[in-house]
């Protein structure tokens, strides 16, 4: 919950018990203040008890959509369902609307190299930034004339409705580093290249990403490094099956597919219900 909402709610709890969930890695002063009176604190990342001294802290992950877990299928089958070649390495690129320009520019630049490497791309473009002073566009992320045709080398979509299928089809995933995105990606357990959104509050996406990078569960390239490091880092992942397997195994540490149930169970336990 955003601090602008949870601070007044918890402040007016008037002695009633409450539990606190921190979805990101960073903890602000308000987080620390509210955690002091919480019955327990639930975190999405490990080693966060250092921020919440004196509070019962549980690393249980972020609740995610159930279908991310239940609707996954075999990678080869997922590729075939999407009309892709099941034998070709496939990259999935995802991110929120209006924060995709960096990734969109990169894919436009490197499409010829992807073709040379015979790599398929599932490219979620997101919606474009609205014109200065203008309204947010309601359709069309990127004009089709702006995207070189992928032909049988991949798919382009403004929005992907069946994310479990897209995750399943991917051999490598490129993504921003939002808290819920990382929780879903950890459960998907596919090699990840994270490109944190640089304008997120307190640069928290970089901190989210570094938590995985430090466990060799992901690679990271910052926005300002895209031209110099994006392609080489991406190919480091794509061209090493050993590295991909290692990253997948390490992601298991962060995967919390039962986060919702475990959080509810802990609340009931603490409240003796």
From TrEMBL:
User: Could you give a GO molecular-function term held by this entry?
Assistant: hexosyltransferase activity
Q: Does the keyword rRNA-binding apply?
A: no
Q: Which UniProt keywords apply?
A: Transferase
The domain of life is Bacteria
In this chain the Glycosyl transferase family 28 C-terminal domain maps to 91-254
Q: Which InterPro entries match?
A: Glyco_trans_28_C (IPR007235)
Q: Which Pfam families match?
A: Glyco_tran_28_C (PF04101)
The question of whether Transferase is a record keyword is answered with yes
What is the name of this protein? UDP-N-acetylglucosamine--N-acetylmuramyl-(Pentapeptide) pyrophosphoryl-undecaprenol N-acetylglucosamine transferase
């Amino acid at each position: 919950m955003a601090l602008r909402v949870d601070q007044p709610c918890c402040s007016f709890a008037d002695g009633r018990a409450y539990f606190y969930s921190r979805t990101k890695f960073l903890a602000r002063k308000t987080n620390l203040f509210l955690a002091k009176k919480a019955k327990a604190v639930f975190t999405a990342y490990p080693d966060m008890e250092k921020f919440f001294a004196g509070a019962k802290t549980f690393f249980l992950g972020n609740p995610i959509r159930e279908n991310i877990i239940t609707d996954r299928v075999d990678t080869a089958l997922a590729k075939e369902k999407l009309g892709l070649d099941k034998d070709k390495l496939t990259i999935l690129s995802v991110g929120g609307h209006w924060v995709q320009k960096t990734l969109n520019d990169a894919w436009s630049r490197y499409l010829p190299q992807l073709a040379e490497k015979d790599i398929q791309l599932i490219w979620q473009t997101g919606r474009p930034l609205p014109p200065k002073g203008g309204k947010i566009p309601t359709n069309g992320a990127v004009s089709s004339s702006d995207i070189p045709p992928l032909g049988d080398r991949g798919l382009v979509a403004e929005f992907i409705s069946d994310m479990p299928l897209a995750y399943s089809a991917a051999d490598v995933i490129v993504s921003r580093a939002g808290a819920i995105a990382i929780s879903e990606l950890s459960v998907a357990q596919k090699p990840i290249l994270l490109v944190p959104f640089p304008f997120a509050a307190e640069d928290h996406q970089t901190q989210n990403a570094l938590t995985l990078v430090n466990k060799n569960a992901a690679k990271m390239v910052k926005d300002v490094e895209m031209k110099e490091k994006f392609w080489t880092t991406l190919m480091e992942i794509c061209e090493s099956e050993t590295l991909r397997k290692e990253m997948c195994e390490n992601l298991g540490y962060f995967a919390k597919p039962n986060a919702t149930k475990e959080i509810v169970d802990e609340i009931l336990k603490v409240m003796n219900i």
